[in-house]
Amino acid sequence: MEKYIVEAGETGKRLDIYISIKNQDITRTSAQRLIEEGHILVNGNKQKVAYKVSENDVITVEEVSPKKIELKAQNIPLQVIYEDNDIIVVNKPKGMVVHPANGNPDGTLVNAIMAICKESLSGIGGEIRPGIVHRLDKDTSGLLIVAKNDKAHVNMSEQIKNHQVKKTYIALVRGIIKENEATINMPIGRSKTDRKKMAVVKEGKNAITHIKVLKRYDKYTLLQINIETGRTHQIRVHLSQIGYPIVGDYTYSNGKNEFGIVGQCLHAQKLEFKHPITNKEMKLEAPLPDYFENIIKKLN
Fold it and tell me: Considering 137, 139, 194, 249, which one is annotated as catalytic?
């Protein structure tokens, strides 16, 4: 148990920021999780993440041992789009979880990457997320960058943070969108009614999605999507919010399973970025998965 007493010059800081400054081993994200789970208390009481600390507040941090997950390399088929000594870019299939967690201890992208890369993966992502720079939802397919060393990891993380990585997605949505192009600018945060879901909420984080119509069908629209921000479930939430949910996304719509698929028709098709070591312009593309192609053929 660690204890901190807030001094006069530290007042007014958010609780999560205060903790991440006082303890360099606790990131702001980790602090938020510990606060929400009740492992960080203020004067013996649970507080919200945004609580502003006051002088003489006594803040205690309970040590939480991470749940041990045995991480092992697994020979799982994975399409490699690009690989060198610094990064590997793969085409993640729909249905594959990116990294192990409770409930998904193996069969993940990390397990597959470990078998391909052996020992050469960045450790910055932590024991459970080696090399993982960004992520895709379980049922979103497409391009994912994995860093093989810490220098590449830091550079790619900075590019993503500074919106220097252009991500292009393809999605099939229900309904016919009249505009050829549009921008959705709505803040996204945790849903107030279902903590497992995200939602458009006034106090959420800034989220910007650009959409462009590729083709209109009888009851559907095929879209090209670019995102400026990378919020959890951003594309799915934004499209559902404006009344055009992604086909197969039953978390954010009540539509019927007309094509007999599990998971949303959303594919991370292109990535454009600068190579983290050589600074070379990289433009990579992953073909649409078979199930997605087959649906488009049916519609055509």
Answer: 137
- Between CA 91 and CA 85 the distance in angstroms is 18
Strand partners, 4: 59
Pick the CATH number of 69-162 from 3.30.420.40, 3.40.50.2000, 3.40.50.12780, 3.30.2350.10: 3.30.2350.10
Give the DSSP H or E segment for 15. helix 15-22
Looking at the predicted structure, is the pLDDT value of residue 267 above 90? yes
Specify the pTM: 0.76
- pLDDT band at 112; cut points 50, 70, 90: very high
65 pLDDT tier (thresholds 50, 70, 90): low
Query: Is the CB of residue 224 less than 8 Å from the CB of residue 212?
Result: yes
Bridge partners for 171 per DSSP:
223, 266
Q: Please state which of the ranges 127-131, 238-242, 261-265 shows the lowest mean pLDDT.
A: 127-131
Let me know if 137 is a catalytic residue. Answer: yes
For residue 194, how far is the Cα from the chain centroid? 19
Length of the chain: 300
DSSP-derived secondary structure for 170-207: EEEEES----SEEEEE--EEE-SS-TTSEEE-TTSB--
